[in-house]
Each structure stands twice: as C-alpha cells, then as structure tokens.
Amino acid sequence: MSNILECKALTKRYGGKEALSAIDLSLEPGRIVGLLGPNGSGKTTLIKLACGLLTPTAGGIYINGEAPSKATNAIVSYLPERIALPLWMTTQQAMDFYGDFYADFRRDAAEDMVSRLGLELRQTIKTMSKGTREKLQLILTMSRAARLYLLDEPIGGVDPATRDYILKTILTNYSEESTVLISTHLISDVEHVLDEAVFLREGSIMLHESVDTIREEKGKSVDELFREVFAC
Amino acid sequence: MDWTFREDLPIYTQLYEHLTLAIVSGVYGPGEKLPAVRELAVDAGVNPNTVQRALSELERSGLVHSQRTTGRFVTEDAQRIEQERQRLAEEQVRQFLAAMSKLGYNRIQTVMLMEKMRGEGQ
Which residue of B has its CA nearest to A29? Predict the structure, then answer.
C-alpha cells in the first residue's frame, strides 16, 4: 500500500527563518503517530503544509501520492490549534455546517459524542469555555471518516478526565486504513496510544521510530527520552 | 481490569503479561472468547496494533488460539494454563527472594519469618 503522507526534502521558510529544513518523512496507513517537539520546532508548519494552508518553499509533500488540493482535503480531517469556526455558530449549526461541507461526515457519531461529553446543542461557540470549544472541534474532526487525521495539539486545554475520553475517542473512531498524526508536547498522556513517534527539532527530524522499539532499545518511555533529548 | 503500565518496558509485553494473568486467574476461563482487539485497545487506552501484537504473542505461546472469523479464544488445555500459572508463581517468588536478600535475609531466615508471621493478615 502507498504512503498516506510523504515528505520529500520538504522545506518551508518564513522570510529568512527556516521552519522546516529538507525533511523526509513517510507515514503508512493504519498508524497513530505522535509529532513531538518543543515549541517552535515546526510541528504546526508541517501540519499546515499537509492540508494545503501553506505551500512549500522547496521539496514536496504528498497525500496519498498527490500534492495537497481540494481532492486531498476531502480525505484529510484537520484539527487546527485554535477553533476555526465562526463564533456565532451553535453546536447544532456547527454539525450542520460540517455535514454540508464534508461528504464523509458521520452525523450520528458526532451527535453521540456531543451528548456523551455534555455539550449543549443550542450553545454558541462564543459562550463556550476554551475546553468546550476544543471538545467540539475534536468531535467534528473525528466524526469524519477520513484517511488522514491531522490533530494539532488536540488535548492541550482540557482536564485529564476529558483527555482520557478524547484519546479513547480517537482510538474508537479511526479505522484501520486511516492514519492519525497527533502533534503535542504532552507526551506521557498520548504515548500509550501511539505506534510511532517523530521528534522534530528546529525544523529537522531527529528520530522516527516505533514506540515499542524506543522502549525496548532504550529501556525508557518516549516521554523520558524526549526530556533527555530536549533538556534545556 | 486495571491497566497500568511501567515506563521502562514495551507496552505490548506488559499487555501480554496482563492478559496472561487474566487467563491463569480465570478472568477469561478455558475456551472463553476474548474481547475484540478494538475493545481491548479502548479499554486499556492503548494502540490497537499494540494489542494485536500482544495477542499474536499469546497465540504463539499456545494460551490463545484464533478462529478465522469468530475471534480469539482461550485454550481449553487446562494443563497448559496450569503450567503458565506455575511459571508466574515462580517468577513472583524469585522477585520476592531477591527483595528479601537486599534486606539482608537469606532463604532460611525468610522462611522463618514467614513461619512466624503465619496467621497474620488472613
């Protein structure tokens, strides 16, 4: 099977600042991958390139073999760092919006999660707390039957109990043919659900390895390894 | 089941141990069907591929066998399960003796202490 995400010598510069330096990365279908790195290491830039919100300065990025386009966005479900929906929308309207926009939106799955997490159908996003906004955005993102999920900091602003529920939501909703890329620095919270870890540092990939291999070879968790590698 | 994981070992080996313990202690009896991969993954909060790997190891060890369409089942071979129980018990005793030896107790002293404490905490 072909790679769902592939980067070839992918480079992105903002003015004189190089955010990604000629990275090569291949992700196979059916994996949950952690994109890990300190602030400013290029995680968000990589995700934005994958969904076509940014264009590469040099090199290429391919979704299922194609450069990002409307066609690839139909199989990519993206969770932005901050909520990207109009603030006047209610939970109900946001679900309608996603249903209109994406053919792969599973309304029943979204409604089930909305009721389970206790979101109000008539509440506007404007009046929601930061955590509730994150929950709504994640519900919408994971309710699509996509091939590639790009989750930029999905658990940053929610409490530990909700964090567990969100991780279980990811496990329950992704299919065996789809890949989930999760960017985060809350490694100990996510590492049990990961197949692979990618360490980014200053725009370069330092490590791309299976989580079990890291534990087997180094005798330590991904979190411990990260703290060691990125010690200040 | 309570799922807690150590930091210094691969998750799949810990899952393997967890499931083995569940089988020898009768949580899953002989011939009983095991939960599906996805179900175990969500329950333990771990990756489905990791669960898959642990189950494959269990199959290799003969504690579990899979039937093509219906799922995975605990072996009906009670002797095999008993043998595994014995192995785990020996492992526990070995660890216990090692910890006692760190405290400066040799085997005889350890056994004597156990004799002395008999009846406590029952």
Answer: B49
